[in-house]
Fold this sequence. Notes:
The chain is α/β, with parallel strands linked by helices and 709 residues long. Among the domains are: 1-80, Serine Threonine Protein Phosphatase 5, Tetratricopeptide repeat (Alpha Horseshoe), CATH 1.25.40.10; 285-333; 406-574, 2-Layer Sandwich (Heat Shock Protein 90); 578-708, Rossmann fold. The protein is 66% helix and 11% strand. The chain is built from 24 helices and twelve strands. The strands form three sheets. It has a five-stranded mixed beta sheet. The protein has a five-stranded parallel beta sheet with strand order 9-8-10-11-12, with helices on both faces. Strands 1-3 form a two-stranded antiparallel ribbon. The longest helix is centred in the middle third of the chain and has 112 residues, at 256-367. The protein binds adenosine-5'-diphosphate (ADP). Residues 465-466, 469, 497, 499-502, 510, 515-518, 526-532, 555 line the site of adenosine-5'-diphosphate.
Amino acid sequence: MSTKKEINKLILSATKLRESGNFEKSLLISRIALRNAIAIKDNELIANNYKNVAANFNELMEFDKAIFYYNKALIFANLTNNDSIKEKINNNLGNIYCFEKRKYEKGIEFYKKALEFSEKIPDSSQMAMTNLNITWAYFDIGSYKEGKNNLKFLNWYHNKHEDSSTIVVLKMLNGMYHSYKNENDIANRCFQEAIKLGQEQDNKTDLSYAHLEYSKFLLKQKEYKNAYDNLALYNRLTEEMFTEVKSVKANIEGVNFELDEYKRTIDKIENEKDLQFKSLKKSRVIVLLFIIVLFVLLLFLNSLIKNNKYRRKSNLDLMHANEELIVANKKAEELSLLKTQFVSTISHELRTPLYGVVGITDLLLEEHKELALGPHLNSLKFSARYLLSLVNDILQINKIEENKIVLEYLTFSISDELNMIKNSLSFIAQKNNNEITVEIDPLIPDSLIGDKLRFAQILMNLVGNALKFTNNGEVQIIVKQLKVRGNMHTLEFSIIDNGIGIAPIDIDKIFDKFVQVGRKEMDYQGTGLGLSIVKRLLELFGSDIAVESELGKGTTFAFVIDFEYDMVKTAEIISDIQVDLTSIQVFNVLVVEDNHINQIITKKTLERNNYSCTVVEDGYAALEILNKVEFDVILMDINMPLINGFETSRRIRQKGIEIPIIALTAFDKNEITDEAIAVGMNDIIVKPFEPVQLFKIINCHIQKVKSVV
Length: 709
Ligand code: ADP
């Protein structure tokens, strides 16, 4: 790579070659210098080279090429702080535009720029040169006023510096100005001085112009002969100059091809530079893009990390929340279980003594019939039964809410069931002086299959309410068959009373738990649980309850239940529970029961019906007596100290004793069925039991054993 100094040397020699008319060589050296200047990216040197190339073309009168390269030179010069080169290029461009292209306006623009730079430098000789050019341009186009100040400056400058190189033109310009001013003598003198100096200097170019302008002046003075002579001199001089240039041109004619080649090379250098620039630009763009992409990636990475952190944190939060939820859920489940267990335990604990109270009251009433006439024992019995029903209700609703109830399918007679309900409620009916009527659609088959216990419970509650809230009236139970689909009979039950009725605003509330509306003092018995049990039980049947009521007129509750009618199934179910109640045989019953009151009640109940009864207090005693005595059936309490009913039964079966064991329990049947079967028990009776029910079951099992034997 060349140094700046070396390139400067090349430029200097190229300039010298040009000045000596060796344009070809000058251009060749400029080419080398230019390539080197571009290589070291020195704008000033590049501009200088282009300027020399342009000057070469200017001398060769290739003005377009000259303008082209001067412009290039100017572009690079403007990138530098070198005002001198900027001034020179602008001046040269001004020359070409004004004197070759005759585009004075544009040329003068360049001159003005050149002047600005020469003032900055400050270079008074350059300033004088530019001023000379501007003045000449203005005068050429007749703008004498505009050029006047420039001329003034030139004259001042010349007086000061005695510059001979421009004196011919300066004298000529003064001549032109005075001619314009019609100061003809002065003008004439100026022109003549110019011509004289031109001849002395052998400055053909300037001299030729001096002759031309003098010819114009003389023409104006109507000195035609003189004017013609000066014009002829001008023509001769121009001719001479042209021939000289032509010969130079001819000299380089042979290198014209080389010149074009030269131009192409310069273009190539340019292109290379352009390409370099473009690739630089491209690589810059790539670097920029890379940076942007990197930045975006970094941002992305950052947000990813943040996101991850956030996610991890929120995952952790969620995990904590989840753990808390699991704990809370567990707690809730435990609490719910505790509540259920509590309710069920309390209810059972209450049921056992209540069973005793009810049972003993019954026995008392039976043994001392005179007491039945007095109010005390009856109200004791009533209160005990009420308490019992309350406990049962609570147990029931608890079970429904725990989803522990599954409907059972039993066969039953609809008329029997309704009459049973009617009979069991006849006591309340009489109390309020009400009549109960039952109306059954004759289309309904008598034997149906369904959960008759739950169905009875629904009806008991509704009819019970109707009787409670009606005085001296009528309660109708009406059953209608709405439709039959296959075996399914859709029945509508309506319980209609003409009692006190329910206010419209209370209608929606009555199905809530523990709600009793319009109650005056302690007029009616009730817990406020009846209707909510009804509603929930009907939900188990997939049904709902409808109510219509008018205060003082009465109330109608209605619901729809599907029951199955299937003779074959019914026959099977009936044969399963066929009981021989007619037997007069005396059976031996072993009662295993720890509670004394229960012992008495059960014993009395059995003995009253001609059953022989042995009572033992616990499981061990039972196991012992079974070694010695033979029994037909065992009634086994479940809740006993030492060993409970299940364990005792298991041991009895272990001994190989096959006699039926019937569990007597205050528990709900469903709760103990599985375990009872597992230990080998045969059936379950829930306390307090109806004596008839007890005997039915006892007989049934004894019969089964007998029929096998
Ligand atoms: P209760 O144990 O008080 O009877 P229920 O849930 O069975 O509880 O009934 C709730 C309330 O609905 C009753 O207290 C009563 O005010 C009203 N009610 C229920 N049935 C009737 C009816 N047939 N006639 C008038 N009011 C009734």
